[in-house]
Amino acid sequence: MNLPKKVKLVEVGPRDGLQNEAVAVATAAKIELINRLADAGLPVVEATAFVSPKWVPQMADNALVMAGIRRKPGVGYPVLVPNKKGLDAAIAAGADEVVVFGAATESFSRRNTNCSIAEGLARFAEVCKEALAAGLKVRGDISVCLGCPYEGEVEPQAVVRVARELDAMGCYEITICDTIGVGTPGKVRAAFEAAAKHIPAERLAGHFHDTYGQALVNMYAALECGVATFDSSVAGLGGCPYAKGATGNVATEDVLYMLDGLGIDTGVDMAQLIAAGEYICGVLGRPTHSKAARAIAVKFAAA
Ligand code: HMG
Ligand code: MG
Q: Which of 10, 51, 62, 250 to mutate to test the pocket of ligand 1 (most atoms within 8 A of CB)?
């Protein structure tokens, strides 16, 4: 089996996870979480989102988060931006990488960003041009690639169309996202193989929510396609406010357990990662969604 020897894990818990929490999480706790995740060896920690605070109030403290984190050398701290207003605010806050986020279906695009796919892409073209000119990196996420809560089945070609546009705008990495976790490995393969005909697999990333318990096996299917970058969320935090019922991303601890078992290098330390997960679960007052973190805690308690 020709699996990658090294995988880049993009931790999205502080953004994708905390954006979906009903309780307000203190800015200081977000900063502490981000610092702990970077210290655990994660090479990329998605820090926050410069979106409308009316749409996602949980991310309203974006500039304070960016001002408060300790920037560990070599670690990326990308932030989501939906438009030029978000980009300007992100640059003012010192971001050096932004993420534009489109969708494979019209209905999801409208619910998430109040515009059509084409209108969203036009905004991203402006964001990409200005961000790249200012020396920032731009990543492109595509939601609902394996199924949409409003339109059901999604054809791989719908993913490819958006991916090619993001590629042409200069996104260095394009993330195929299963927003509501409905995908299964055959669909993963179809989407990634179709996208890889136009964009090298090394520049594609996977983002799998675990709603139906398929995220790890979907990730494995993407690994088999040569994909070596994956988003995940410490303690399985997360969801999407515009995809009702969607649960969190696959837990970073579970992903790390699988990759460690496969002998794939990530540079992430399990003990520090679990401690970061325990920290945020303490703040939220609920147990972890990571099975590996639970099992390892039980093992240590028994030892
Ligand atoms: P809109 O209401 O159409 O925007 O929202 P607008 O341009 O008409 O502006 C409305 C108000 O928002 C104005 O303020 C703007 O200034 C303000 P007012 O005059 O009413 O006081 N505004 C902003 N404020 C701060 N930052 C901004 C910004 N832009 C406008 N950037 C908009 C359109 C795109 C802004 C809105 O729909 C939005 O913010 N959407 C973001 C939704 C979101 O964050 N969703 C979750 C993240 S995506 C996700 O989780 C999926 C992912 O994980 C992958 C996956 O799993 O699929 C990435
Ligand atoms: Mg997501």
A: 51
Q: What's CA 257's distance to the chain center, in Å?
A: 19
Range 44-58 average pLDDT? 97
> Which of these is catalytic: 128, 171, 240, 281?
240
Locate 120 and state its tokens. Answer: 């969203």
Residue 34 corresponds to which tokens in the numbers above? 């981000």
Q: Which residues are within 8 A (CB) of 222 and not within 5 positions of it... i.e. 6 or more apart?
A: 176, 188, 192, 206, 230
pTM for the model stands at 0.97
Q: Which of 266, 260, 234 is nearest to 249 (CA)?
A: 234
Query: CA 297, 301, 303: angle at the middle one, nearest 5?
Result: 115
- pLDDT, residue 114, reads 97
Indicate which atom in ligand 1 lies nearest the CA of residue 246: 56
User: Looking at ligand 1, which atom is closest to the CA of residue 145?
Assistant: 57
Does 1 score more than 70 pLDDT?
Answer: no
For the segment 4-38, what is each residue's pLDDT rounded down to a tens digit?
999 999 999 999 999 988 778 999 999 999 999 99
* Structure-token match 């890889």, residue found: 196
